[in-house]
Amino acid sequence: VQLQASGGGLVQAGGSLRLSCVASGSIFRVASLGWYRQAPGKQREWVADITSGSTTYYTDSVKGRFTISRDNAKNTVDLQMNSLKPEDTGVYYCKLLVGGRTAYWGQGTQVTVSS
Q1: For residues 88, 93, 98 and 99, what is the CA-based torsion angle, rounded to 10 degrees?
Q2: Predicted confidence band of residue 106 (pLDDT cuts 50, 70, 90)
Q3: How far apart are the C-alpha atoms of 31 and 64, rounded to whole Å?
């Protein structure tokens, strides 16, 4: 399984970005998918998850601003990010989890939010 993330960039505070991650392989539709981020000098942190049944979960700091979605026909998982804040800056990674144990990661895409 390979994952390719895209859509990062530089945006002013209050702006929006949409990240997308495309995965190879037929296991996509049974996998849970997630987005994580890592700010400079900090550990990678969880941002959002979407289950195979499309139930979504968010970390508190992004609730109401970010939306995770998936398209099983295209093998993609997206993260719509609105009302961006400087503290949202970091490298964003997509993750595919199968059977609750086997994880695959994308290469990361940089998001920079200027104040």
Answers
A1: -40
A2: very high
A3: 24
